Amino acid sequence: MTNTQALRKGMFDSRLSCIRKLRVGDKVPYWGGIKSLFAPVVGFLPALDDSSRGNYGIMDQVAALHWVQENIAEFGGNPRNVTVFGHGTGAAFVNLLMLSPLARGLFQRGVLQSGSALSPWAIARDALTYTKQVAAHLKCPTKDSAALITCLGKRPIEDILNAPLRIPDHLIAFGPTIDGVVIPGEPADLMEKQTELFSQYDMLIGVSRIEYYSKFTSQEDKMGIEEDRRDRLLRTLVRNLYNYHLQEIFLTVVNEYTDWSKPDQHPINILDATADAMGDALVVAPLIRTGNYHSKLHKSSQKGTFMYVFMYQTEESYYAQRMGCIHGEDVPYIFGAPLVNSLSHFHRNFSRSEGSLSEAVMTYWTNFAKYG
Fold first, then answer.
1. 3-class SS letters over 77-123
2. How far is 152 from 135, CA to CA, in rounded Å?
3. What residue stretches are annotated with the Carboxylesterase type B domain (predicted)?
4. Backbone dihedral region of 139: left (phi > 0), alpha (psi from -120 to 50 degrees) or beta?
5. 70 vs 301, more confident
6. Whole-Å CA distances, 251 to 226, 256, 284
7. Inter-residue contact 315 to 235 (CB < 8 Å)
8. pTM, to two decimals
9. Which of 55, 69, 84, 108 could lock 182 by a disulfide, CB 3.0 to 4.6 Å apart?
10. In this predicted structure, which of 49-53, 147-151, 363-367 has the lowest mean pLDDT?
11. 342 φ, ψ to 5°?
12. Are 209 and 324 in contact (CB under 8 A)?
C-alpha cells in the first residue's frame, strides 16, 4: 500500500513523521507562510495614473522573499530551496508570484491550497470604480488622482475600511490588478503562452471535498434546500461570472449537477449538488486548469506538478458528517494543530489518530518542500 493510499484509508505509519525535539542551538528549518497584513483597500489600492503604482500587497510579499534570500541561511535554511504556500486567497497570491517577474529566482516551489489566480475572486477587475466610491463616501476628490490619494491619506483607517461598498457575490472590490509590471498580463495567458516564469517552479495543488459551504445556514445544512434556493444561488453565480448566454449556462449547470436517475430530488441532495457546483466554479475547476497548464510544461521543464484531494473530516467538526471535509479543513493538519491542541486559532479537541494524520500531512508538505 502506498503512503497516498494509506492517507485516504486513515492508516498512518509513524515512520513518516519528520517531527523531532529541538534543543537550544539546533538548526531548524524555516517554515513560514506569507500573510497579508493589510486590508485589501490598503494593500491593493489600484494605480490611479502613471505616477502611482498598485499591487503593493504583492510587492510586500516580494520584499519578504528578498528578506528570506538575504537572511535565511542564518536560521539554517537554504536560500536556493524556498517553498511558498498559501490557502484560499493566499493560494492565489502564490500563483501570482509564480507569474511575476519581480519574484523570479526568489523561490523554487509553490503550494496552492484551495485557490489559484484563475479563480474569479483572485483579480480585482473594477478596483478603480470602487476606489472612487470609497473616495466619494469620504468626501474626497474623485477626478484628481493626486488629490484623491492625499485626501484618503488624511482619513482615519477605520473610516476607509468601513466605507460601504456593494460588491457582487464571488468577486472582489480590491485585490491584485493586472498592471503590466507586477502582474504583466492575464494569468491564463501567462500560464499558457508566456511560460518562461511559470515553468521554473515545482507546484503542488489541492482541494478539500467541499469548497463551498459558508453561504448555507445551519438549518439548510440539516434539512437541505429547495430548487428555488438552488436556482437563486446558481443564477447569481452565472450572472456575476459571465457576460453572455447566461440562461444557457445556468440550465447546463443545473442539468450537470442533477441526479436524473432519481425521480424526486430530495432537499439534501439538492444542497449537496449545489455545493459541488459552486465549489467547482469558484475553486476546483480554476485550480485544475492551473494544474493542466503547468503539467503541459514538463516537456520543456524538469519541474513537477502534483495534486491532492483532502477528504478527512475532523471527528469534532460542526457540520454534517455526510459533507466530508469542507474548505479549510486541511489547514490545522498542515500546521500540526492536532499534535499540540493549544493553537488558539483551532478550537477543537483532536484525537490521537488525527495527530497521526497531521504528522503524515506535514511530512508530505516538507518532503515536497525539500525534494519537489
1. CCCCCCEEEEECHHHHHHHHHHHCHHHCCCCCEEEEECCCCCCCCCC
2. 7
3. 41-372
4. left
5. 70
6. 16, 9, 20
7. no
8. 0.85
9. 55
10. 49-53
11. -140, 10
12. yes
Three cell numbers at 112?
Answer: 496552492
> Which has the closest alpha carbon to 91: 346, 241, 291, 240?
291
Q: Write out the DSSP string of 250-266.
A: HHHHHHHTS-TTSSS--
Count of other CB atoms within 10 angstroms of residue 340: 12
Q: Are 173 and 124 in contact (CB under 8 A)?
A: yes
Q: Looking up cell 440539516, which residue turns up?
A: 222
The candidate with the shortest Cα–Cα distance to 37, out of 57, 66, 52, 23, is 57
Q: Is the dihedral of CA 18, 22, 26, 30 positive or negative?
A: positive
User: Which tens digits make up the pLDDT trace of 46-81?
Assistant: 766 655 678 989 999 999 999 999 999 999 999 999
User: What are the φ/ψ torsions at residue 75 (nearest 5 degrees)?
Assistant: -105, 15
How far, in Å, CA of 187 to CA of 96, rounded? 7
Which candidate, 366, 359, 306, 308, places its Cα nearest to that of 332? 359
Specify the amino acid at residue 107: F
Order of strands across the sheet that contains 109-113: 83-87, 109-113, 202-208, 305-310
Q: Which three cell numbers stand for residue 240?
A: 456575476
* CA-CA-CA-CA torsion sign (89, 94, 100, 106): positive
Closest CA to 237 of 205, 212, 207: 212
Residue 302's CB is within 10 A of a number of other CB atoms, namely 9
